[in-house]
Amino acid sequence: MNDEERSKEQLIDEIKKYRNLYSELEENMADFNLLKPENKPFQDALKFLSPLVMELLSLPTEAEIYDYILEKLQEVVKDAYIIISTYDENSDSLKVYKVIGTTNRMVDLAEKLTGVKIKDLHFPRDTLDQEAKNFLSNGKLQKVDDGLYYITAGKLPQKTYNMLEKAFGIDETYVMGFSLKGEMFGSVNIITKKKGNPLNINTVEPILNVASVVLQNKIAEKELKKREKLLSLVTNNMLNVVGQIDSDGTFQYISPSIKTILGYDPSEILGKNVHQFINLTHPDDQIKVSSAFMEATISYLPGEVKHRFRRADGNYIWVESLGNPLFDDENQYNGVVFSMTNIHSLKAAEENLKTSLEEKELLLRELHHRVKNNMQIISSLLSLQSQHIKDKRDMEIFESSQNRVKTMSLIHEELYSSQDFTHINLSEYIRNLTKELLTSHIGDPGRVQLTVNVEDINMELETAIPLGLLINEIVANSVNHAFAHHQEGEIIVDLKRDGDAFILKISDDGIGIPENVDFEKADTLGFQLINNLVNQLDGEIEMHTNNGTRFIVKFKELEYKKRF
To answer: Which residues form a coiled coil (predicted)?
Structure first.
């Protein structure tokens, strides 16, 4: 038995199971004699149903099915008008498809009386309430007392209906709807004549039920084809490859886009094992891809991996593969659905950017190196020039300037050896800075102990440079003035975080600054620089002169100011 015959038999079984006529026959088959004269309606119905199903299934379009229904109805319904309405997608309404049993003269008369062309009659689906939908879609051919008024939704005056019923000799009106998923897609109206034969519902209803099932199947088939066409349009033109692998690792689906993206025909992949697919990855990436696939199948979690994949032309491209496990209704592992996206251009751009950044990093490192060298040259020039200075005060000025240059030079030296050109490690920088000050200004550095307590802090240059200069000025002041006459002592530099701020404490136990000195208003260059640098940091400073000198500075890291 071929698939087509099997599907037809399945449809017949469905009709037998769900339609009233066949249910009644199955329930009473044991004591029901179809040959009895009183069961002639069922005999007539069965005579039509067997060939009817086969004929209907063989018809390719809905229009041909409707025409065939009209033809069969005419064989069993005598002296009646038959109206079939079908769904019109453009107007989302039911429109009259055909009227059988009338003459051209009768149609002309009806159109004159109503002022409406038969072909223009339509009934929007949204005008049907739930009660009307339930009434029309219950699978029964039902009599309606309102006659033409009901089947035309009361669009005409009652006087017009009376004239029509009288002119055409109308007796009784029956209606049955065709529906799918609660939406009406057609209806049949049978209008009997007063002098005609009575309508045999038991004969007509099974025919309409069979036709309804076939029409539903045809509409669903058409919708499926429309979706398949849309899916095909998407999968053929998508920018990535989509596939499905079953629990055994066999490809069940691969999107046609694989031809465009990777150059392979879907038939080359379908039915193959996923490991054959993995073998097409770059040798250096195969372990990474295999591990990612195995991990996803074991953990049942989504996974992703970036790797190189060999196209049909032999060239490798970078792709990103994403996988998501599938489970059946019983939560059993059922395979993987995956997508593969071409990221070759992104990867190339990333490599170009990386190369560009490395080049810029090299240039920036060289720039810091040259700045450091230039500052060391300036410091050396100041040192050479100071050899010709005899005045002690002038010598101190030269030495202070030399220290300030060294302070800035140290920052560029730190940056030159750092991996981060935007931040500097304060702990190492302050230790080097204060040690340099101590060794260059005190002939016997051992008599003054230097203690540096600085937290591991990375700070942007915007703040680090004025902070370094500030520490230089305060420590230099202690080195130069706190320990006169070879006095021993200690200098302590302490820097810690305080929430989003920093607290810098620099103290010495030397001779101290006279109490009558107001350092905030002093006219010495050192104190002026200290105040200016504190202002540059938007900070606050205190000075205490008990048992030596202690400066406390509180500040926050400055926001980086863009240069362009």
So the answer is: 1-35
